[in-house]
Amino acid sequence: MIFFWAFVIGGLICVIGQIMFDVFKLSPAHTLTTLVVAGAILDGLGLYEPLIDFAGAGATVPITSFGNSLVHGAMAEAEKHGIIGVITGMFEVTSSGISAAIVFGVIGALIFKAKG
Hints:
Layout (H helix, E strand, L loop, with lengths): L1 H21 L5 H17 L3 H8 L1 H4 L3 H18 L1 H29 L5
Helix pairs in contact: 2-5, 5-6
Protein name: Stage V sporulation protein AE
Keywords: Membrane, Transmembrane, Transmembrane helix
Organism: Oceanobacillus zhaokaii
């Protein structure tokens, strides 16, 4: 049943993003930012962790999970180190994903030739 709910919840998050494109005519940057901020707000309110427990990858794969990770890391480090922890916590939790994106982007740029 977990696969079903992961599909449904992940699909609903994607449908929300598609509606933002088609109905509200938002740019990809605005849509991306809105979904990240929504994930951050949901985590700040304590609602994203129960969603992850319920839907698994359906809640951790979409971009809303990035906002969740930023707030989750910042809040965890703020409890340990105060205001400095807010800044360092965001980077500590998300640094591996960001680093991987940069490294794989550079490798892809070196291997493949752009058309145009």
